[in-house]
Amino acid sequence: MAGTTLPTPLYGLYRQQIGFSELIVTVVFAVYALGVIAALLVAGDFSDVLGRRPVLLVAVGLSVLSAVCFLFEGGLPLLLVGRVLSGFAAGLFSGSATAAVLELAPAGQEGRAGFAATAANMGGLGCGPVLSGALAQYAPWPLRLPFLVDIALLVAAFAVAGALPETVARRTPRPPLRPQGMVVPQQTRGAFVPAGLAALAGFSLLGLFTAVTPSFVAQTLGVRNLAVSGAVVFSAFCASTVGQSLMGRVGVRRALPLGCLVLTLGMALVATSLLTVSLPVLVAGAVVGGLGQGLAFRAGLTTVSAVAPQEHRGATISAFFVVAYVGISLPVVGVGALTLALGLRGAGLVFGGCVVLLSTGVGVFLVRRPLGTG
């Protein structure tokens, strides 16, 4: 997952080298998210049929191919191909790896396993910008070395994934592999809709930090240290992991609405940082917003996983991630388009207002009608 956000602090360097607008930066970012969504819709249930381990190994292989595209990048086309392949890999991972971790958990440890799965997801996404930002700022080959390190890590991941026990029983005859689209069984829909909307709002915040914040830090705040840009993005994902760790104490029923309302506060702080041109306020918004996103995300995923039938668990989790990645892609492209008319600050303020309305609405709804899990 770290490889999917590895290019985040490097977009400024790519802009200098290739020459493209802020809109293209968000498009390059969103192409990754569209790749995730495509993989989830087409292959979201493949691990339910083929097994978790084969799908994980294919995902690692696609991650390696993505890194190779960035290594030999000579313009925008290979950047786009690399991002699409990275999206395919993340899409395969999101449902299958989460389901595998939950199924490998000993009896009574499902809650800890759920935290391990979501923390690895968010923690990996946060580590990518820190790794590439530090290497690009302080080591040679700023557009090559991060991806060489990524490939080395992926080789290790391939070996570990290959040694995992399989958790899916082989069925004879094997069911055919068909794209299932959005699989949301009837009994899960009452929980899926509010949990999905909370995930959409939270991932919208993460999308803003991943795609746009490095440009804001460099162009508006005048901080051109790539390690700082990576650290700002990392703060949001790190806070998300902390927020996920708090869910056990808060409880699923309270964590989902509370996460939405904390997310609202975080997004308000981000908007304030745009108005006041303040790096400390931006970091505060990242931390508060990340905490809210983490609380809501883990509570939503835990709820959806608990109510999904075993035979459709991987597909249902994949559908949950589809909704989340819609939030991380389409709104961010909208921000990029708005920058052409309103500038970076104006577009960010409009975006922030939309996220505040959505997260507040979902939070208030869940306060009045809490879900029945936990």
TrEMBL record:
One Pfam family of this chain:
MFS_1
Which topology term describes how it sits in the membrane?
Multi-pass membrane protein
InterPro entries assigned = MFS, MFS_dom, MFS_trans_sf, MFS_Transporters, Sugar_transporter_CS
Q: Subcellular location, in the record's words?
A: Cell membrane
Q: Which UniProt keywords apply?
A: Cell membrane, Membrane, Transmembrane, Transmembrane helix, Transport
Coiled coil stretches, renumbered = none
Start and end residues of each Major facilitator superfamily (MFS) profile domain: 1-371
Q: Which domain of life is it from?
A: Bacteria
- Any stretches that span the bilayer, and where are they? 20-43, 55-74, 80-102, 114-135, 147-169, 190-211, 223-243, 255-275, 281-307, 319-342, 348-367
Name the record gives this protein: MFS transporter
Species: Streptantibioticus rubrisoli
